[in-house]
Amino acid sequence: MQADLSPVITATAQWLTRSFPAPGGALAAALCEAQARQAVTAAARLRYPTAMDAALVGLAGPGGSARLDWVTGADAGEDAEAQPWRTWVDEVVASWAACLLTDPALASAAVTALTGHAPAEFRRLLSPGPFDRHAGALLRHPDLLAPVAALHHAALRARLDPDSTLVP
Fold first, then answer.
1. Taking a C-beta distance cutoff of 8 angstroms, is the pair 29, 21 a contact?
2. C-alpha to C-alpha distances, 94 to 105, 121, 130, nearest whole angstrom
3. What is the pLDDT of residue 24?
4. For residue 82, what pLDDT is reported?
5. Which residue range forms the structural domain that includes residue 120?
6. How is 76-111 classified by DSSP, letter by letter?
7. pLDDT in tens, the chain (168 residues)
8. Which of 73, 93, 152, 157 sits between 20 and 30 A of 64, alpha carbons compared?
9. pTM of this prediction?
10. How far apart, in whole angstroms, are the C-alpha atoms of residue 133 and residue 31?
11. Distance of alpha carbon 160 from alpha carbon 156, whole angstroms
12. What is the number of alpha carbons within 13 Å of residue 74 lying toward its C-beta?
């Protein structure tokens, strides 16, 4: 199933790392990308939990980055047409990934919901080291990611705790 989501995961992680880049050189960029990819992978698996869900998003397409660009103040404009990967960005997955990057407790709950435990596959998301923290300074900054995270935060909470929608 994960292979079916790879275009969505790759494009959405790329959007995050281009919107909130790592300060520094190649190592910082690689660490930032690893964190973004782990957050996006967890979010995509939560959003599309079955093979049928993954197949449907592959058929219909995820929607693209236009609204995300607008919310963050980025103007992709003509650039968007020259970058076809932007059509594979999933707004909900990006929003959920932003929530996971800025809230360690929520990230832990999401990974636990997926796997029942915290596997090494999500180490940089769940337990970032000092180099990860430096590389992801913008990527994990709650104020910078707030507009993106707010888009679908309630839906992520509902996905992780279905009974929470019943509480007034």
1. yes
2. 18, 19, 24
3. 87
4. 75
5. 2-166
6. -HHHHHH-GGGGG--HHHHHHHHHHHH-HHHHHHHH
7. 455 899 999 999 999 999 999 998 999 999 999 999 999 999 999 999 999 999 999 888 898 999 999 999 876 555 656 788 999 999 999 999 999 999 999 999 999 999 877 788 999 999 999 999 999 999 999 999 999 999 999 999 999 986 654 444
8. 157
9. 0.91
10. 9
11. 6
12. 19
Token pair of 57, please?
């998003």
Place of tokens 């929003």: 95
Residue with tokens 């197949």: 55
DSSP 109-156: HHHHHHHSS--GGGHHHHS--HHHHHHTTTTT-HHHHHHHHHHHHHHH
Q: What's the structural domain count of the chain? A: 1
> DSSP characters for 40-90?
HHHHHHHHS-SHHHHHHHHHH----SHHHHHHHT---HHHHHH-GGGGG--
Q: Phi and psi for 24 in degrees, rounded to 5?
A: 110, -160
Q: Which residues of 124-138 are buried (b: 16+ CB within 10 A; e: fewer)?
A: bbbebeeebebbbbb
